[in-house]
Amino acid sequence: MAKCRWAAIAGMLLLFASPNANSAPAADAFAAAKKLPPLLRAFLYRMPKGGDLHNHLSGAAYAEAIIRAGAAAGRCVDPVSGAVVWTPPCAAPNRPMKDALTDPALNRTLVNAWSMRDFVATSGNSGHDHFFAAFSLFGGAASAGDMAADVADRAGRQHMRYIELMITFQSTGLSKLADRVDAAHPWAGDPAAFEAALNDAGLTDLVKAATPEIDAVEQRMRTAMQCGTKDAHAGCGVTVRWLQQVSRTGSAARVFTQTMFGGLLQKSDKRVVGLDYVAPEDDPRALANYTDHMRMLDYLHGRIPDTNISLHAGELTMGLVRPEELLFHIRQAVELGHAKRIGHGVDIMYEDEPFALLKEMARRRVAVEVNLTSNAQILGVQGADHPFPIYRSHGVPVVLSTDDEGIERIDRTHELQRAVLTYGLDWNALVGLERNTLEYAFVEGASLWADPVSWRRVPQCNGPSAASKTAGGCAAFLDRSEKARLQWALEADLIRFDREVAAGLR
Fold this sequence. Notes:
Helices cover 52% and strands 11% of the residues. The protein has three domains: 2-34 and 444-502, no CATH class; 62-138, no CATH class; 161-423, Metal-dependent hydrolases (TIM Barrel, Alpha-Beta Barrel). 48% of the residues are buried. By secondary structure, it is of the alpha/beta class. The chain has 23 helices and 13 strands.
């Protein structure tokens, strides 16, 4: 059945546009829309998109959605600080979170505390500080499934195909296990010995326990979006995958335990497609232990080579840390940490031998997850000061992502618009960025693209217009690869969009 379905799609697509995305209607409409930002916003919102590869679940859900979920769960809140109080009754001065659904003043307090809305920096409270403080305020108000529904549905409405959400499965269990093992066999920089102690203490039991946890999150997400019913939300059509987070601010024992767990979980459950180190890179503990963390990843790579690693690296700038801290983070992430993708990468030109590093990243096809609004809000780096055009000019793959769209009060369409207006992207560049999001996604399977620069398809799917000769082989190829199916679907979406524009889409 699947083979017939993909054969039909393959036959249709091979009759139409070339992979160079030069179709006139959409390209012309895009060029016209660039002259008026509101028109550009509407155009980009309707444009088919690949995915978002750098998206923290807890920071991606909007404050309003968290308030609704917290109200339904009976949470309480400190009306001054905006901090969630988990356990009722809501004794004064705390208030039921449901009050924020009808009290405008309380609603404003929570939304502003939990996001960058209306934020103005003051002495001792920078955008960086306000941003990261928000996470500690709303934690526990909403379930992971409710937050995932908010994020996935927003992605679906923007015509996205795929998202990877960062989350920490088995968080409490991992911390307890790491601390227990560390107490009996203190971390001494010997990863093999500590791994053996972790295995003896039940690390694999936590890996097994993660599967029903993922099941529950996804079931709640689907239920909240009414998937499988006549009222199914747009997000039901979005493929959601998970990146296991590792907090780089914990003890060495905790970081190593989470790292090994992430590799084992990806191997055990295909819905988890990789791991990522998170938390402020400028945290003093993260800075002090950065190289040791990369060595942990090097050990993991030796033990489980197929682990997909994406690392927050280079989310730093002059003044935030000492200049010496800007010299090596991205390089070590690539060379020692085996990162297939780099999150942020803002300080690339401060690195030792930056041009050699750019060349190496281009050769290895290490993609950079660029988060323009996040970098402006947290680091104050934007416009001509941002390395986005430098990466592109040196052949380093780039994807545009959101980071924490709920806290930032943006969506992914906003990031596309920001990139277009700031850097003058043309239509082919924009389509290439969207194709990159699926090309460098950690989703399973071979790529549709034999060359992800010229966008030449693999031979099985690269026939000119002789669909009868190539559709069967292409269908079999697509049937074997989830990645290629997503990529093929995006191409179909782009062709459909071009037809709609030609027909007078408004």
